[in-house]
Design goal:
Pfam families: adh_short
Organism: Chironomus riparius
Strand content: 5-15%
Structural class: alpha/beta
Family: Belongs to the short-chain dehydrogenases/reductases (SDR) family. 17-beta-HSD 3 subfamily.
Shape: globular
Keywords: Mitochondrion, NADP
Distance between the termini: 67 Å
Number of helices: 18
Helix content: 40-55%
Protein name: Steroid dehydrogenase
């Protein structure tokens, strides 16, 4: 018995030591990185290099006429960089450009309203074509004042997606190819403390910042061999126009500085670490805040059943499992023949009613009016937000077409947002309902070569957890499903998936397991072996997970390309 007790003590000591090391690595790695890169020039006796020498002559700043963006433009100009200002107000742009000229630098202004979506980027790319862009500051962002998700208009939701998700994605895509050719450059992405926990009453905003974090970290790893850095800054409360609803004086305070004070601090970290709060007091706040369990952090911040993507894989299997339990099913997908086939099979096998809606979610905003019209007289009990799209194989961010990136944003982000927006008001009136959002195990680790796809799944996670809290008083649940690799038509990699087994189940096996959890928990992997995988993965620090996922996806990509060559020969 003594030997057993001694072994238990030894085991718990090892676990405790590992937990302390893991926690310190996660919370202080960025600080050590900042200190090392600050003193490295003195250790190696290197002369101090200007920002132009390190990255290039021009800095491009989006959302440049106020707040954090304006003061980054001023600080970069003060350091001798020419500055290209992008915003929607020509008058404010010209005024700021004149202000920057006192630093004896060149300026350029581009008028662009990012809320218009895809239409603005051709002109921006054309105007940046001849500039040596060394630094891109992706600062532009927007949100509404805190309110219930279903109270926000379609227009404001699309505006937030186009600005907070679209701008960071497509501005990065414009500058990365030239930065890779020059073998130098820096992209600074402005996130928010809301990336750390879902935010009820600001559910969509918090989800867009989870997207920003995941994309930034994945791209930083993806571009590491090209000497291109992606720098993520994570402010807490800063006194700007966007935080006007907070009771903070214009000059700010020690906890919530104004934009000028914040940027003066944050600019000193530029290029010296991969991510930072940018301000010493915010670093302390984040360290203390993230020691709390997530459900506490979320609390502190506040009968037809519809299946999207219903003709294949997980969506199709959910439709059959729900029908098996006597539920009428509304199927939504883009292929009429497949919809009719699945509907006919469900009616024949399970003797329930079906309804089909043809909709291509990649078309974006235009489809939801018709879906809303077809659902207006339907009593909806469960919504399964399953529809999603990914690249066939892992690929470099800048190699993906603009059209495909918009398709991924419209499908993976737009569908879960606007399908939820359509049905929540009825569920609140009925005081019952369940929204099941299908995410991915990728939400746990930003993944190079799958950067945008995984970032969209971080968005899904944040939105779902926030909505679950926001809707709890109405007896409406938001259920997050987090599968690892499941063998479906969309899953072309890793190649091991085609061999199956317990670790990589087919969709039917997976959904049978996941159905048991429906409505019984707020989030789940849905499958026993996936739960074990995620538990083990979570024991590994994030930076190490990112490193090995990069290697795995590079190998998967090469294996797929080799197989294609064999087929073609």
């Amino acid at each position: 018995m003594e030997v057993f007790s001694e072994n238990i003590r030894l085991f718990t000591s090892i676990i405790g030591i590992y937990a302390i090391i893991w926690w310190c690595f996660e919370h202080f790695a960025s600080l050590f990185e900042l200190i090392y890169n600050s003193i490295k020039p003195y250790i190696k006796c290197q002369c101090k290099r200007t920002l132009q020498m390190q990255y290039g002559q021009w800095a491009v700043v989006t959302g440049a006429t106020s707040g954090i963006g304006k003061y980054y433009a001023l600080e970069l100009a003060k350091r001798g960089m020419d500055v290209c200002l992008i915003s929607r107000s020509e008058e404010n742009l010209i005024s700021l450009a004149h202000e920057l000229e006192k630093f004896d630098v060149s300026t350029k202004v581009i008028v662009a309203d990012f809320s218009y979506g895809a239409s603005v980027y051709n002109n921006i790319e054309l105007q940046l074509k001849d500039l040596d862009v060394g630094i891109l500051v992706n600062n532009v962002g927007t949100h509404e004042d805190p309110d219930h998700f279903d109270k926000l208009s379609h227009e404001s939701l699309w505006r937030m997606i186009n600005v907070n998700v679209g701008a960071i994605t497509f501005m990065s895509r414009i500058v990365i190819p030239k930065m890779k050719i020059k073998n130098k450059g820096l992209i600074l992405n402005v996130s928010s403390g809301s990336q750390y926990q879902p935010t009820p009453l600001l559910a969509l905003y918090g989800a867009t910042k989870s997207y920003t974090r995941s994309l930034s970290i994945a791209l930083n790893r993806e571009l590491v061999n090209f000497n291109v850095k992606v720098h993520l800054i994570i402010p807490f409360y800063v006194k700007t126009n966007m935080t006007r609803y907070l009771n903070v004086p214009d000059k700010g305070n020690i906890l919530s500085p104004n934009a000028k004070v914040y940027v003066k601090s944050a600019v000193k970290t530029l290029g010296k670490c991969t991510h930072t709060s940018g301000y010493w007091c915010h670093s302390i706040q984040f360290t203390l805040f993230t020691t709390l369990p997530e459900f506490v952090r979320v609390f502190l911040t506040h009968n037809f059943h519809i299946v999207t993507g219903a003709t294949d894989g997980i969506g199709k299997c959910y439709a059959f499992e729900l029908a098996k339990r006597g539920m009428n099913i509304c199927l939504i997908s883009r292929t009429k023949s497949k919809l009719n086939g699945v509907a006919s099979e469900i009616e024949k096998t399970h003797k329930v009613l079906t309804k089909c809606i043809i909709a291509d979610f990649s078309k974006g905003e235009s489809i939801y009016e018709e879906i809303n019209e077809q659902l207006k007289d339907v009593d909806i009990g469960i919504l399964v937000n399953n529809v999603g799209v990914s690249s066939i194989i892992p690929d470099k961010f800048e190699k993906m077409s603009e059209q495909f990136l918009w398709e991924m944003i419209n499908v993976n982000i737009g569908a879960v947002t606007f399908m939820s927006k359509l049905i929540i008001p009825k569920m609140k009136i009925n005081r019952r309902g369940l929204i099941l959002n299908v995410s991915s195990g990728g939400q746990y680790t930003p993944q190079p070569l799958m950067a945008v796809y995984v970032a969209t799944k971080c968005f899904v996670r944040s939105l779902t957890v926030a909505l679950n809290k926001e809707l709890s008083s109405y007896n409406v649940k938001a259920h997050l499903l987090i599968p690892s690799f499941v063998r479906t038509k969309a899953m072309q990699f890793p190649m091991i998936c085609k061999y199956g087994g317990n670790i990589f189940p087919d969709a039917e096996t997976y959904v049978k397991g996941a159905m048991i959890t429906l409505g019984k928990c707020s989030h789940t992997s849905g499958y026993f072996y996936h739960m074990i995988q995620f538990t083990l993965i979570d024991l590994v620090p994030e930076r190490i997970r990112i490193y090995f996922s990069h290697i795995a996806f590079k190998n998967a990509r090469q294996q797929y390309l080799d197989e294609q060559k064999v087929k073609e020969s």
